[in-house]
Amino acid sequence: MFHKTKSVLATLAATAALTTGAFAGSHAKLSGDLVIFSDMSNPAPRAVMEGMVERFGEMHPDLNIELTVIDREAYKTQIRNFLTANAPDVANWYAANRMRPYVDAGLFEDISDVWEDPELADLASTKGAMTLDGKQWGVPYTYYQWGVYYRKDIYEELGLNEPATFEEMKSNCQTILDSGRKCYTIGTKFLWTAGGWFDYLNMRTNGYDYHAKLTGGEIPWTDEGVAKTFANWRELIDMGAFIDNHTAYSWQESLPFIVSGEAAAILKGNFAVPPLREAGLDDSKLDFYQFPSINPDVELAEDAPTDTFHIPSGAKNKEAAKAFLKFVVSAENQTLINNGDNLGQLPVNAKSSVDDDKFLKEGFEMLSSNSPGGVAQFFDRDAPAEMAKVAMEGFQEFMVKPDNLDKIIDRLDRAAQRIYK
Amino acid sequence: MFPTPIEKSSRTWQLSYQALLPAALVLWLLPLIAVAVFSIKPDADFTTGNYWGLPTSFEFVNNYGKVFFQSDMPRYLMNSVLITVPTMIGCVVLSSMTGFALGVYKFRSNIWIFFMFVAGNFVPFQILMVPVRDLTLDMGLYNTKTGLVFFHIAFQTGFCTLFMRNFIKALPFDLIEVARVEGVAEWKIFWHVVLPLMKPALAAMAVLIFTFIWNDYFWAVVLTQGAESQPVTAGITSFNAQYRAAYHLMSAGSIVAALPPVAMFFLMQKHFIAGLTLGAVK
């Protein structure tokens, strides 16, 4: 045992020596100021950000790191401002189409050279999300899975199993409805929750590639595939699967329904778990399953929104910024910042280890082995912001008045023609 | 007289008035009460849907402790003081002088300059958002407390000048004439004759400006970003987490942020009411 540890240590030392060798150049030279603007404003992410700055600072004692943490919502409006006016060296943002406005405006630096580093080969699963126009514009630091979180105790009481097909999903739902409950809770007040349902229904009905083309503007909303997706959605709506008056609730306000047992499940990202646990749903009452397959001919694909770091093109200390980005995605740092005490999400580096948490493990398993179709970012990150808004308004309207579908499709089609022009 | 004073109405009406008033008051204050109650609830009460019931556990110390010791709240509060007090002083000083000049001296275009001050009040401030942001950026005042103070002084001076000029206009002009006959210098007239008479107006205005600036959210969001310069109104949103809003902490933070203007109001109630009506009479 002791010998084993020793050999591991030796390997580690060797790796460290190699790594240090590779980084020696940049190690010695990094100096000056490194200004970081971050939107990691809640307590846990904030501590993670501050911890990373501290550890990076210890590695580079000559570097003076200035960290500004901005409220996450305010950040979304302020980023336009500071990227042009007062650019930091490193800034947080999101992957895929959400970064397109800044890439197109030349405000984010092309960092394809960082991605050529062999260390970043372990980030292959998220490389696609960081790539626009064949170049990479940032690095990911965390992501999380989406899926159906359900009340295990209710399923057991009714003798139901996790559904694998749409038929099972519907028959389960009918049983739940007959027991006087609703199948799914949802709060569509802020629209995006309905986008999650559309993502999954469309990816399961038509596949990831179709979904990517639709959000990318290559397939019109009048296409037959979209109609099939809405038809599937309508089946659930007509059954009464969703809670009533969902347009009045935010997603947090929709949680009491699953906590009280008035609804049996919620389609949501993994961030729903901590509040549900706090509210008393322990692992014997709360469980997770992958959204079931609808069309057996298409491969399963998942939503896994990715949060990122970028270097603004106006940055003054790009060398230090690139070193920081490499530090962020390193396997060791990824394991640390994504564990349950910190972000409690999934590491982006394949060599990192996942925290010992039921939902994270299931999520990591699902994303790494059972999502052959691809990994989408989420509707409002995959589609351009303007299109996402119009479309999600349409989804919300459809969930309340499914008979308006033709009008909604027509509206989306006209918006698409204007936006993707 | 309309409305009829309550003392002069019939006894039954008086009784129903007395019964309805507390009910209406509670109804009107309901949102505030909800915020106050939420500020002592645990986070889980929101997820379980316990919006209006009693707190499942009493978290006063915990929530307010977090607000004061584990967030940037104290810093935001300090920023608010450092923005509000200089603005208050700046506005009072400038507008008492402009008010004196416009109220006492008869010169050509006096009325037009006065109108310009008044007209400034008619500009909806939202349309100034982009130019003011660019201006502060060019001046290097973007994201500083100084920038916010300068802008507030500039913008509030219009209203304050109207207020002061009307007040000085209402003073007996004979006092100034007498002083002039005695050969007192103009600035001494301002300092020794007019300023002491303006004390009620100065106090009323200071109170009004304090509450206006303390409660300002718009410019705080437009001109500042981050804990080093933002006042507390904008700082409360920092309890909005990445995925969920910490409503219990936000409630506690709002209560703390609302205390200074409320305290100001109760301590200076007389001046506050005087301030609201002073400009209106003339």
UniProtKB/TrEMBL annotation, chain A:
<dbReference type="Pfam" id="PF01547">
    <property type="entry name" value="SBP_bac_1"/>
</dbReference>
<protein>
    <submittedName>
        <fullName>Carbohydrate ABC transporter substrate-binding protein, CUT1 family (TC 3.A.1.1.-)</fullName>
    </submittedName>
</protein>
<keyword id="KW-0732">Signal</keyword>
<comment type="similarity">
    <text>Belongs to the bacterial solute-binding protein 1 family.</text>
</comment>
<dbReference type="InterPro" id="IPR050490">
    <property type="entry name" value="Bact_solute-bd_prot1"/>
</dbReference>
<dbReference type="InterPro" id="IPR006059">
    <property type="entry name" value="SBP"/>
</dbReference>
<feature type="signal peptide">
    <location>
        <begin position="1"/>
        <end position="24"/>
    </location>
</feature>
<dbReference type="GO" id="GO:0042597">
    <property type="term" value="C:periplasmic space"/>
</dbReference>
TrEMBL record, chain B:
<feature type="transmembrane region" description="Helical">
    <location>
        <begin position="245"/>
        <end position="267"/>
    </location>
</feature>
<keyword id="KW-0812">Transmembrane</keyword>
<dbReference type="GO" id="GO:0055085">
    <property type="term" value="P:transmembrane transport"/>
</dbReference>
<keyword id="KW-1003">Cell membrane</keyword>
<feature type="transmembrane region" description="Helical">
    <location>
        <begin position="149"/>
        <end position="168"/>
    </location>
</feature>
<dbReference type="GO" id="GO:0005886">
    <property type="term" value="C:plasma membrane"/>
</dbReference>
<keyword id="KW-0472">Membrane</keyword>
<dbReference type="InterPro" id="IPR000515">
    <property type="entry name" value="MetI-like"/>
</dbReference>
<feature type="transmembrane region" description="Helical">
    <location>
        <begin position="189"/>
        <end position="214"/>
    </location>
</feature>
<feature type="domain" description="ABC transmembrane type-1">
    <location>
        <begin position="77"/>
        <end position="268"/>
    </location>
</feature>
<feature type="transmembrane region" description="Helical">
    <location>
        <begin position="20"/>
        <end position="40"/>
    </location>
</feature>
<protein>
    <submittedName>
        <fullName>Carbohydrate ABC transporter membrane protein 2, CUT1 family</fullName>
    </submittedName>
</protein>
<keyword id="KW-1133">Transmembrane helix</keyword>
<keyword id="KW-0813">Transport</keyword>
<feature type="transmembrane region" description="Helical">
    <location>
        <begin position="81"/>
        <end position="104"/>
    </location>
</feature>
<dbReference type="InterPro" id="IPR035906">
    <property type="entry name" value="MetI-like_sf"/>
</dbReference>
<feature type="transmembrane region" description="Helical">
    <location>
        <begin position="111"/>
        <end position="129"/>
    </location>
</feature>
<dbReference type="Pfam" id="PF00528">
    <property type="entry name" value="BPD_transp_1"/>
</dbReference>
<comment type="similarity">
    <text>Belongs to the binding-protein-dependent transport system permease family.</text>
</comment>
